[in-house]
Structure to design on (307 residues):
């Protein structure tokens, strides 16, 4: 499913405050001032254990879902988003509206489902939480209680995974709120161009990427990467990690969004496993971007290959 092809601009929702238990409204919206954030980025949601999460994924008590105080930003279980309807069909059997049709549930777990993207092929899938989570703007994603959806996506998409992406190079990505069409969080599991893989390895050799999350936002770790022919270069902040065990949403919020006074809803996040002729090389390139960067973008669709 290519969100960019059918994107509709979603009005940015403003909320004055949520529950005092989850901190100030400025933290929830990512609207901290650049000056104060540079001195002290403040707490990240991943630092605060979520002690009371009243809801759980359908059919499971294994992993918490966003509690009620997050619903203004994360959506309500009664919402009628088409992709959320698909999730409910896969996890509970609730039939979607006749106009929507039933999805192919390629894999269903207590924490997520895997569905076809559009167009349907062997290198275009979606990993979708079984919790009601609208998208990257949901602050619950930055807490310590959230499922590690990025690692789940990699374990499914990799060679030998449950729903492997049949493409020379794999890319995982999530679009910003304004660049997506469907409002249930979904990580694209798709192909990525060989030229993108080569470019990232060149930048690694040149030392043009962070190796610690605290340096992810440094200007020297920002670089242009070419998209499809004719689309030009886009600028991305690049971080190399040895694995996907850390909460990427929390890292993005703490080390990029807060220091720059940005909005989490405007971010795109892309993960590219490093590949060589021998296969997976044991590390990951994590790219972030938004339109505040010169030549930046708020969508992952310039780099991922769906067709």
């Amino acid at each position: 499913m290519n969100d960019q092809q059918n994107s509709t601009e979603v009005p940015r929702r403003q909320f004055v405050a949520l529950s005092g238990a989850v901190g100030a409204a400025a933290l929830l919206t990512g609207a901290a001032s650049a000056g104060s954030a540079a001195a002290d980025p403040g707490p990240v949601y991943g630092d605060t254990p979520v002690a009371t999460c009243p809801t759980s994924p359908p059919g499971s008590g294994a992993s918490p879902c966003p509690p009620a105080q997050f619903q203004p930003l994360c959506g309500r279980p009664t919402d009628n988003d088409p992709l959320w309807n698909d999730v409910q069909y896969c996890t509970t059997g609730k039939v979607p509206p006749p106009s929507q049709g039933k999805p192919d549930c390629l894999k269903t777990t207590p924490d997520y489902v895997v569905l076809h993207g559009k167009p349907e092929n062997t290198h275009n899938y979606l990993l979708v939480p079984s919790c009601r989570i609208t998208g990257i703007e949901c602050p619950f994603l930055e807490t310590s209680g959230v499922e590690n959806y990025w690692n789940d996506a990699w374990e499914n998409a990799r060679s030998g995974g449950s729903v492997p992406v049949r493409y020379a190079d794999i890319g995982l990505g999530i679009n910003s709120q304004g660049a997506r069409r469907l409002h249930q969080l979904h990580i694209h599991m798709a192909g990525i161009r060989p030229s993108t893989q080569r470019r990232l390895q060149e930048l690694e050799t040149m030392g043009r990427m962070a190796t610690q999350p605290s340096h992810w936002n440094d200007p020297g770790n920002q670089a242009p990467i070419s998209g499809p022919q004719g689309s030009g270069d886009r600028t991305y902040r690049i971080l190399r990690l040895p694995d996907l065990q850390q909460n990427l949403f929390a890292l993005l919020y703490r080390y990029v969004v807060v220091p720059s006074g940005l909005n989490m809803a405007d971010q795109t996040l892309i993960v590219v496993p490093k590949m060589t002729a021998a296969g997976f090389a044991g590390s990951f390139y994590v790219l972030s971007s938004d339109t505040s960067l010169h030549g930046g973008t708020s969508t992952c669709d310039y780099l991922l290959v769906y067709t």
The CA atoms of residues 143 and 251 lie 11 Å apart. The chain has a mean pLDDT of 84. Helices lie at 25-29, 34-39, 71-74, 82-92, 149-157, 194-205, 248-260.
